[in-house]
Amino acid sequence: MPIIVSLLDTDLYKFTMWQAMLHRHPQTQAEYRFACRNATAYPLALLEDEVNAELDHLCSLRFTKDELEYLASLRYIKSDFVDFLRLFQFQRNFVQVRTTPQGGLSIEAHGPQVHVMGFEIHVLAIINELYFRRLQTPDTLDEGRHRLQAKIEQLHALKYEPILAHPFELSDFGMRRRFSEPWHREVVTTLTDKVPQWFKGTSSVLLAKELGIVPIGTMAHEYLQSFQSLGVRLRDFQKAALEDWVQEYRGDLGIALTDTVGMHAFLQDFDLYFAKLFDGLRHDSGDPFDWGEQALAHYRKLRINPHTKRLVFSDGLNLEKALELWRYFAPHIQLGFGIGTNLTNDVGLTPLNIVMKLVRANGQPVAKISDSPGKTMCDDETYLAYLRQVFDIADPII
Predict the structure, then answer these.
(1) Is residue 268 part of a domain?
(2) Is residue 20 classed as helix, strand or coil in its secondary structure?
(3) What HAMAP family does UniProt report for this protein, alphabetically (predicted)?
(4) What H or E segment, with its residue span, contains residue 165?
């Protein structure tokens, strides 16, 4: 059975960014590159043939009639984008898989961005599932169910805590690093059934469709990074990206990602205009408490009532950390928590820390300089130095 059997089996923000780029910058050429950031139990190179076979299958898939109808039912998805998807098919010659001398995998996707940006989540899900098939034992999923039940009990215990100004709201952000597709489905189904008052949705469009829950997501770093290559002054790329988003969605999908070049530089661009138009902000690197305090201070400085805005936390969370952040910030502002690996790959095995990031667009390097220096991914040190200079970002201390 192939791992990916539906083109909806991906994160919602792939579709929302895809539509925005198709409408506004369809000519953009892009390069995406895979990386594994942690040690593996065995060389990923052993998966080369299986990964290639899975990609062959992925490139045979088309969107089905009912999938297109579901996408069309989302009010922010436009009819011409659905028509594009009706014709869409991944092109196998746009993605290449090779082994590295160190025993790893080199995976790159090159081509028109609107034809290659969708590979990312599928590639990561494929590698995860193939990798863990070799490590799974008869007891693995039993351990996963035990840990999932413990999370459910933690959530039920919230009934006995003092009521805060804003409720705890949890979503599944675990598509890209899931243990497997069946386990992902079991986790989301179980949470939907057992704790619907706290579990509010999933980034997986396929599971949202099948389970009748809310698909969640807005933008990722690749969207903002793309604007580093789109002809605007580099200092203005974040403002250009946010402005295009506002014009595309006109009030929908109003959570902005803050750490493409760090929270400080972001807030310099996130003026009263954007702060009023966007519903809130998403945290994805750096200390979450410091980040949240900066966000609250920024809203207050702009004389915006924080209770009308939302902070979404999504950086390597587990349930304990999410609840700690909720107790701290819920008296002041609306909150959402997207948990990924620690929901969909918490089975007792060491998860992979894998990414597939945009590294070049229109023939030039692009980069993010997040609030966690280890997340930077760019092989052009000259460009990184220039980007730091433009935004007055100090070099990281090694």
Answers:
(1) yes
(2) helix
(3) NAPRTase
(4) none
Consecutive H or E run containing 201: strand 199-202
Dihedral angle over CA of 336, 311, 314, 23, nearest 10: 100
| CA gap 166, 168 in Å, rounded | 7
Structure confidence at residue 219 (pLDDT): 97
Q: For residue 396, what pLDDT is reported?
A: 66
Q: 256-265: per-residue pLDDT in tens?
A: 999 999 999 9
DSSP 222-236: HHHHHGGGSSS-GGG
Residue span of the structural domain in which 227 resides:
141-344
Instruction: Kindly state whether residues 181 and 330 are assigned to the same domain.
Output: yes
Q: What is the token pair recorded at 258?
A: 């803050």
| Mutual angle of helices 79-87 and 65-73, in 10-degree steps | 160
pLDDT digits (tens, 9 = 90+) for 142-162: 999 999 999 999 999 999 999
Nearest to 336 by CA among 304, 305, 306, 314: 314
Position of tokens 């909806």?
8
Q: Is-above-0.85 flag for pTM? A: yes
Query: Which stretches of 227-315 are assigned E, i.e. beta strand?
Result: 255-257, 280-283, 310-313
The confidence score (pLDDT) of residue 398 equals 47
Q: Is the pLDDT of residue 376 over 80?
A: no
- Within this chain, do residues 65 and 198 fall inside the same structural domain, yes or no? no
- Amino acid type, 35: A
Residue 396 within any structural domain of the chain: no
Element (DSSP H or E) covering residue 50: helix 48-58
> What's the total number of domains in the chain?
2
Mean pLDDT of 40-46: 98
Domain annotation covers residue 3: no
Order of strands across the sheet that contains 170-172? 199-202, 170-172, 334-339, 310-313, 280-283, 255-257
Q: Establish if 203 belongs to a structural domain.
A: yes
In this prediction, residues 106-130 reach a mean pLDDT of 98
